[in-house]
């Protein structure tokens, strides 16, 4: 989905040809899973991070084209709306240098973005949903100019017979009901997407664990409690994204409708082959672009996979030597609140995944429990209760403090990561964030309760705190 396309409207023949090519490439991929073709040498880490451009009044400003021209860096790319951009970090091995690499590379790239934005009279901001964003701002007038975004909007609307996209989100105190005639509501959601490249022999286990970790991850990182001035879920980004591009694809065995933005329908049993076969048979093509290159590049398969937004998504990539690899993309966390927080969140995901990997826990935590845990944690954040091993319900903060954070520390220490780095990111930042219950969602809600519904003032205070480069549990209110 990161590549530009050549046209925005498609014929029946385009869809027929695309599906034929997709079937050929899926067959090639199935053969790869049955052979020793994948790169299995080492685990690699990387991420994508979405961000906002805001003006001097803390409102979103639709100037990403000028901004991207100024930055002129292939690691900084457009997003769906002109308000947003995305940062990408080169992959790095999971070794003792990882914390320093993540911090330095992200800070360096963020500084470049901030300086160029300031030269334009703008600011850059990392948050899950911009608190000053208003529904009237999310129109096609502010969609990025790339053809793939216009084609995506056109085809999603076509797939639902031009019906409106109805968004209903029920919070504890307030609810939101809006109608959109395009996909621009999705632009309100800005996320951190963590990538974990693993040997194919471990990929199924890591994919399943990513689902299990989704609930504690979203509780830990929640940073999107407000949308259009209403207090909804601690991570409102989750239901908003699911409904902003809601295109039902198929009905699973339990009778549940599976849409293109989905937590999924089950764990994989044996191999990630199962997910790509589901892609082929369960999800109609959205962007039927045909490629002339060798089918072994899997261009059709990878484009199709990029239009299915699983919260945990398997990806096929290629190394510099041309060998394919498998990586898991964990799409659960929001952007922000600070760079130290982001690095801590990323390290925790890797550490907790390694901690759970020796004994794949889906035998004790059913997929239905993993799913219900995820939505409970999205709604209630660190106040959520989750069903964990042996069917026992427990507070998610207890699970994090007593099991997952200590387990992540131990797993990362075994990979050679320095004890001082682990103490800073996983104890001084994460454990303190959980113990004080002060994640980004808590900070935003507390600010509004103390100062009233002045979202411009809150965003200004948020920006000032973010610039101090300190973790959110230490932010002033």
UniProtKB/TrEMBL annotation:
SUPFAM superfamilies found in the cross-reference section: Glutamine synthetase/guanido kinase
One Gene Ontology MF term: glutamate-cysteine ligase activity
One GO term (biological process): modified amino acid biosynthetic process
Record-given protein name: Glutamate--cysteine ligase GCS2
Source organism: Pelodictyon phaeoclathratiforme (strain DSM 5477 / BU-1)
């Amino acid at each position: 989905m990161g590549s530009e396309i050549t046209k925005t409207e498609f014929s029946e023949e385009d869809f027929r040809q695309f599906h034929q090519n997709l079937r050929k490439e899926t067959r090639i991929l199935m053969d790869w899973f049955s052979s020793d073709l994948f790169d299995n040498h080492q685990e690699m880490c990387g991420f994508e991070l979405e961000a906002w451009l805001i003006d001097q009044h803390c409102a979103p400003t639709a100037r990403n084209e000028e901004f991207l021209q100024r930055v002129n860096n292939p690691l900084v790319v457009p997003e769906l709306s002109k308000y947003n951009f995305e940062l990408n970090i080169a992959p790095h091995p999971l070794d003792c240098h990882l914390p320093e690499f993540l911090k330095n590379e992200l800070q360096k790239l963020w500084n470049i973005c901030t300086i160029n934005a300031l030269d334009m009279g703008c600011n850059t901001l990392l948050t899950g949903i911009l608190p000053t964003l208003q529904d009237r701002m999310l129109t096609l007038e502010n969609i990025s100019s790339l053809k793939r975004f216009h084609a995506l909007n056109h085809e999603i609307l076509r797939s639902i017979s031009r019906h409106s996209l109805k968004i209903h989100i029920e919070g504890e105190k307030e609810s939101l009901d809006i109608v959109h005639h395009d996909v621009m509501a999705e632009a309100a959601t800005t996320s951190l997407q963590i990538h974990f490249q693993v040997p194919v022999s471990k990929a199924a286990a890591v994919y399943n664990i990513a689902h299990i970790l989704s609930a504690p991850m979203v509780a830990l990182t929640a940073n999107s409690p407000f949308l259009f001035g209403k207090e909804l879920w601690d991570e409102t980004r989750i239901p908003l994204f699911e409904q902003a591009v809601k295109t039902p694809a198929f009905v699973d065995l339990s009778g549940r409708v599976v849409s293109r933005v989905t937590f999924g329908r089950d764990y994989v049993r044996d191999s990630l082959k199962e997910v790509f076969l589901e892609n082929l048979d369960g999800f109609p093509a959205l962007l039927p672009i045909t490629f002339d290159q060798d089918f072994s590049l899997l261009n059709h398969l990878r484009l199709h996979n990029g239009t299915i937004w699983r919260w945990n998504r398997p990806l096929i990539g290629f190394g510099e030597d041309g060998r394919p690899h498998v990586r898991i993309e964990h799409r659960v966390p929001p952007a922000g609140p600070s760079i130290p927080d982001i690095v801590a969140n990323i390290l925790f995901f890797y550490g907790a995944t390694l901690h759970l990997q020796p004994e794949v826990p889906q035998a004790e935590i059913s997929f239905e429990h993993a799913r219900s845990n995820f939505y409970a944690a999205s709604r209630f954040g660190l106040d959520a209760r989750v069903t964990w091993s042996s069917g026992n319900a427990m507070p998610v903060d207890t699970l994090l403090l007593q099991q997952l954070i200590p387990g992540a520390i131990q797993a990362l220490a075994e990979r050679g990561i320095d004890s001082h780095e682990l103490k800073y990111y996983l104890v001084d930042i994460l454990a303190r964030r959980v113990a004080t219950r002060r994640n980004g969602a808590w900070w935003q809600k507390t600010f509004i309760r103390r100062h009233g519904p002045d979202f411009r003032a809150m965003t200004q205070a948020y920006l000032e705190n973010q610039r101090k480069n300190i973790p959110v549990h230490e932010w002033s209110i």
